[in-house]
Design brief:
By secondary structure, this protein is of the alpha+beta class. Helices cover 41% and strands 35% of the residues. A six-stranded antiparallel β-sheet has the order 1-2-3-4-6-5. The longest helix has 26 residues. 22% of the residues are buried.
């Protein structure tokens, strides 16, 4: 599936799910979802990787990397443990040093339930872990 067809597919699936998005450009959308105590920003991107197109959903930033090396080390250790416990998603650092929570999947055979599951996983883990992670960097 080509990049343009992949972008159209993700647009269509988001529409089927009635998930509100704002287009930032071809293959990139911004959105958010509400947790119990905060609103989480969400970015959705279609990216070519080899001969396949992938969709990446990312909550960013969950927290910013602290300047204090001791706090950063504690944060790294906790993120690694959480990555081993979570399903479908992972914490990582972006190029700005922000901690992001993301899910990535190939678009080819993707259906609405798989996209919905990815959004659900991100919302559950973001809500579950954001307070603890913010305390680690404070």
């Amino acid at each position: 599936m080509g990049l343009q067809a992949s972008v159209k597919k993700i647009e269509g699936l988001l529409g089927e799910l009635r998930w509100p998005v704002i287009s930032l450009g071809p293959g990139t959308w911004r959105s958010s979802f509400r947790g119990k105590t905060t609103v989480f920003p969400l970015v959705i991107q279609v990216q070519p990787q080899g001969d396949r197109a992938w969709c990446k959903l990312a909550v960013l930033p969950v927290v910013r990397l602290p300047a204090d090396p001791e706090k950063a080390e504690k944060l790294y250790a906790r993120l690694l443990r959480l990555n081993g416990e979570m399903l479908l998603s992972r914490f990582s650092l972006d190029e700005d040093g922000d901690v992001i929570l993301s899910v990535e999947f190939p678009i080819g055979e993707l259906d609405p339930s798989e996209l919905r599951d990815s959004l659900d996983v991100l919302s559950v883990y973001a809500e579950r872990h954001h307070v603890e992670l913010r305390q680690l960097v404070a």
